[in-house]
Amino acid sequence: MAALKRTFCLFAVVGMIAFAGKPAQALEISDMLAGSEASANVVGSSILDWVLNGANHSGGASYYYGIGSSPEALISSLPLIGGPTLAGNSVNATYGNGELAIDFGVEITAVPGVSSMTVTMNATSSSNNLDLSIFEVHNMNLSGTAGDDTIGFAGGSTPPPPPQPSNVEQTDADSTFTQNSEASILGGVGGTDVFPSHWELSANPAALLALMTDGDADTLADTPNDTNPIGAADVAHAFQWDASLMSDDTLQIIVRKQLRSDLVGEVIPEPVTSMLSLLGLAVIGGTAAGRRRSA
Ligand SMILES: [Ca+2]
Ligand SMILES: [Ca+2]
Ligand SMILES: [Ca+2]
Fold first, then answer.
1. What's this model's pTM, rounded to 2 decimal places?
2. Cα–Cα distances in Å, from 244 out to 30, 128, 247?
């Protein structure tokens, strides 16, 4: 029954996406080993869920881009110019237009009790002085329960002011999620930066999402600026990577996520409205006041 409900939800989401003129394919990637299996459904630049041993631990992750003072938009709102290529436990697609091409890839692996997910984005500019921001909004709901999670930056990941933490950890009684990332200009000078430009950890996933869908350009608030955890609550996180690209520069961002849980569950589908909100297709009221990105 749960599987039927889940299928129905996906059809509904795909139908809405097709109606909205977005990429219409929901692609399931999975890794299955003896004693463990993990899977995720990817639609465009959104990852709808993250199932480990039958329990869904994610309310969804979405990836957005912004240029200069233009509003953020889903990466997959750009025209599809390559893929999607589905290869069992990974999917890749390229979205782009005359000034920018973004290769978006997701890979998932599993060993007993642990699933890892890597999201890789390669953004290549076709023009000089392209002020690009890439955003992630990810609402993990560990163990399938949204209200009892705590999130914070792991100690030692906070560099000198302004703090630019990297290692985020979310926990509840049964499961643990960790994430870090790195960004670099491929072939450029300056090496790899493990610290995102901006961040927000929040007990209000809808407010984080609203920043991406409110029609203006935002800069994440850099909160918290310490390692004090937030929760227990329905917590979520957002990161922002900024770069000024010259023609043919490629900004590479690699986001590494790990989920640990011994929970064995039955998949409980997210409400369709929640999925649509995640994809930025629903109208969101009560949005936070816009914070302009600096030029
Ligand atoms: Ca939970
Ligand atoms: Ca915005
Ligand atoms: Ca949550």
1. 0.84
2. 35, 8, 10
Residue type for position 155: G
CB crowding 241-258: b at 16 or more within 10 Å, else e: bbbebeeebbbbbbbebb
Closest ligand to the CA of 71: 2
Instruction: Judge whether residue 67 has pLDDT over 60.
Output: yes
CB atoms within 10 A of CB 163: 17
Nearest ligand to the CA of 144 is 1
Q: What does the pLDDT average to over 227-235?
A: 94
Ligand 2 centroid distance, CA of 121 (Å): 20
Residue 127 has pLDDT above 80, yes or no: yes
Answer left, alpha or beta for residue 21, where phi above 0 means left and psi between -120 and 50 means alpha.
Answer: left
Architecture of domain 2-278: Distorted Sandwich (2.70)
Looking up tokens 């290692």 gives 167
Between the alpha carbon of residue 276 and those of residues 82, 126, 160, the distances in Å are 24, 32, 38
From 137, 128, 127, 211, select the one nearest 168 (Cα to Cα). Answer: 137
Q: Which residues on adjacent β-strands are paired with residue 230?
A: 151
pLDDT over 70 (residue 186): yes
**Residue 260 identity (one-letter amino acid):** R
Residues contacting 244, CB < 8 A, separation 6+ = 129, 130, 131, 132
Hey, what long-range contacts does 10-13 have (CB within 8 A, 24 or more apart)?
A: 10/41, 10/48, 12/272, 13/43, 13/48, 13/272, 13/275, 13/276, 13/279
Tell me how far the alpha carbon of residue 219 lies from the centroid of ligand 2, in angstroms. 8
